[in-house]
Sequence to fold (1180 residues):
Amino acid sequence: CGELVCPEAASLLGLLHGKQWGRCLKVLVKVEEEKMHVSGGRKACVLFISRFLLFFSLQTFEKLLIANRGEIACRVIKTCKKMGIKTVAIHSDVDANAVHVKMADEAVCVGPAPTGKSYLNMDAIMEVIKKTRAQAVHPGYGFLSENKEFARRLASEGVTFIGPDTHAIQAMGDKIESKLLAKNAKVNTIPGFDGVVKDADEAVRIAREIGYPVMIKASAGGGGKGMRIAWDDEETREGFRFSSQEAASSFGDDRLLIEKFIDNPRHIEIQVLADKHGNALWLNERECSIQRRNQKVVEEAPSTFLDPETRRAMGEQAVALAKAVKYSSAGTVEFLVDSSKNFYFLEMNTRLQVEHPVTECITGLDLVQEMIRVAKGYPLRHKQADIPINGWAVECRVYAEDPYKSFGLPSIGKLSQYQEPLHVPSVRVDSGIQQGSDISIYYDPMISKLITYGSNRAEALKRMEEALDNYVIRGVAHNISLLREVIVHPRFVQGDISTKFLPEVYPDGFKGHKLTDLERRELLATAASLYVAEQLRSQRFLGTPRIPIAKSKRSSWELSVRLGDGNYPIAVSKDGSSFSPCLVSQQVEVDGMKLNVTSEWNLASPLLSVTVDGTQRTIQRLSRNASGDTRIQFLGTVYKLQILTKVAAELSKYMPEKAAEDTSSILRSPMPGAVVAVSVKPGDTVSEGQEICVIEAMKMQNSMIAAKTGKVKAVHCKAGDTVGEGDLLVELE
Amino acid sequence: MFLALTLLLPIPVSNRKKNKRILSEKSYGKLTARERILLLLDPDSFDEYDMFVEHRCSDFGMDSNKNKYPGDSVVTGRGRINGRLAYVFSQRNVLCSGVVPQISLIMGPCAGGAVYSPALTDFTFMVKDTSYLFITGPDVVKSVTNEDVTQEQLGGAKTHTAVSGVAHRAFENDIDALLNLREFFNYLPLSNRDPAPVCECHDPSDRLVPELDTVVPVESTKAYDMLDIIHSIADEREFFEIMPSYARNIVVGFARMNGRTVGIVGNQPKVASGCLDINSSVKGARFVRFCDAFNIPLITFVDVPGFLPGTAQEYGGIIRHGAKLLFAFAEATVPKITIITRKAYGGAYDVMSSKHLRGDANYAWPTAEVAVMGAKGAVQIIFRGKEANAEAEYVDKFANPFPAAMRGFVDDIIQPSTTRMRICHDLDVLASKTQSSPWKKHANIPL
Fold:
């Protein structure tokens, strides 16, 4: 039949039959070139067959194992499905019902919950690879992604590691070696001492040579451990001592290096993509300056700060470095950029980054697909000139954590309700959880990566605002309030950011959105209108009862709403005739000002759309109870209100004040986690500020200190215990 | 009479400002009777009775003018809650039991024979820190048994909601209690001749609940919270729990399904593995009988490993008390829908609204295990520990819902996420269910 329609198709089929792959490709290329001249049915036929062949010609692996969990495992599986690759998921026993397990074609349990026994358990993973005959392994990020031993073991079994080879992983994993390599490749590096610092005196000498301030850091370090900033000789000596101790205990390697400390820098990184044939590309930058405790929170691409020349210079240096280590696969070269656009090489991450989606949005590339192709040995499909910057993309990392405690302490629990804002246009959500999933203490508390895209930055940010307002997360604390504040902050909007953005903007810690007078009126009016809608509904019964129900003729309500320390009298009245059961339009009087509130109050929906004086907002009512306590998420922040009728509010003053628990004499766990150490016993006398115990949760150790001086009455925990948020740890007398 | 509410120890009716006694009450954080009625009933709906009755005590100078108040001691009358008729009384009648729902709200101390007033009603609610219920107060206790005990310890809200099971809920203060009572009232029919009320509902009846597919842990020994299941299937996640702090291994309370009030009974795997014991059986039985008396359909979630073994339970009469729950479910003629989420073992399976007790629709989730007992115990008894592979064989054979489904003990094995939809559909069909029992003066439940 092919012959009848078009000769090209017929010849293709013939070649295909004869398994002459190379010539097939040539014909295909010819067809692609001639595509413009082929017409109608012929074109469709050729296209169909060429697609079919393209699939074969680009075939990579039959089966791929993803040595990871959560959103990144799901992300990789999605691309594998697109490429027709079968997938194998691994999981720990608590993850048996996880989304990545359900998405994959096969799933195998590799051990119990702690990562050391499951996702880092190389023996078990190698066993699974053998059993499932997976031909390749994608490590995602974290876990085994930058583990050269894992890459080596895979290679010895003839399994392809989707990532660079062991040489590149090793070279870039060591801070001293990577810096030397970067220097040789003519990449700008931070002025500093390349070798190992022997003692404190030498440290001081080197520090003086470089010029203060300097940073002393562990060669093997990461995540801020073993890092000290010194502004003078004394601090250098001290920093040397502390850093070497910390480096020895954390990494078993006390080698230190000293370099110039770049004050108030931006963190900008270049995505590179290289193949095994010596080709390398830079896929533009990502701005990742919004961080807390050295962890990124908001990322975007491109950066507002870079001009085309700087971008090209950074890109070319990144590519030079990649070529110098014979890098293949996707990688990221991180730079610190100072206020005069001087940039310095920081480190290279030899894996797929968490924030890769923003690059994908502006370049149109699927990085996972490219990584898989490159690992199979295909040359890159693109040239540097083909890499565009289309529009703007912003990514927010949505974490299960309480942003009011040092910008985010982990929270755990079951996602009782979860709804991603996918109905908002140009939104991408990379997540590995669903309604009902557990956020446990064992793994990273990230819920998802929320990415919005727009033709320009303003549009992307506007969509992010909307997406954050439309994101339903219930059952665990989350950082939506912080994210929403950051993206509307004037400094962020202007692009005036640095890695110190959060501590500079919120020196006393994040306290949530500050309502303006207008916003407060809007919130109060919305809450009052919602209350009246609820009251009206509770008077509507279906069917005809034996005893007739007295119909309320009320058309106005006098309410009193408490918000924070203020009590606000509010009058709600029916606005004309539009008081149908569903559409509620009301006039609400707050502080003597009249507001018009219109909404279709669907009280069962987690998202409520309301229009106040022409401004449309999406709010969420998180909870309510019979005595008027209501929690409303408004502009990202959750506000506690108590809505009562005027009568009830007046009588409230006769209610007894319940004595609050004296919190200074008890110590409760601020977050769920494991008790690492308890340093007191009953009968001990502790002074204010003394460490009582240490709680570890999600990679972080937190020292719990006494709030006052006193005698220890009782200790309710011991080292090794698992504690929940709010659990009583220690009581003082 | 359609509904009797008790506001025990009401205080004088006149204006707060004019009365010394009112002021002293205020310092205890209590409202006057009139203020309570203002909060409880719809505005301007109260019609008062017997306003001019005075006390007739003449001893110890009680008949002097300063100790006389018109309308003293009680306020009674009729009013509306969300438009529906309610009577406010201080004395009710045993004959009304099962005719109209009766609720007592204890808002002050209540001692001696007076405590039987609330005890005879269907539900007793208390106000924390300001209300007490006891037969004899701490002074008498001290003189008779030499026990030192405070009012709060002896008969406070905490004691009665968590230890004795006399009261069904406790609230923070008068206002919280009255506003909650208004909300609770909306769940109840006005009498045994009225159907359970159907409210306007915005929550779609065919809503899928995906989280239920993963709520039961993979390891069958691991606990989960039955309240998670109840909240996620109920309209707007609202559940009015009855006796939340007493016998917590069983959960009972009211919710709505597609607007219609239902009574929910569920084993709570989080507490004592959800086993049935004396207290939980009695708690469940009383609730089931209330629902049956007032036409409220029953939805039962089963995850029960059995009755709690041991001498304490046997000596306490678990047979007699367990029989109450069995009796209550068996005699109930309201629509009965049962969902087996996990374990349904032995006699406890039978008791929990099984098909054998005239269940209308009995479903099992794929995680259900309907068997005489757990694999380990069964294998020990059958093989006396001689058979090594027997446990795996038993698990294979019985730790799934199929044997029960094949025998017709469950009507279907359903995808957990469709549970809400199934229940709503069934309730629609069962709304017209009538079932009559043979004539009797009354049944003889094993009390």
In short: Residues 278-293 of chain B form the longest helix (16 residues).
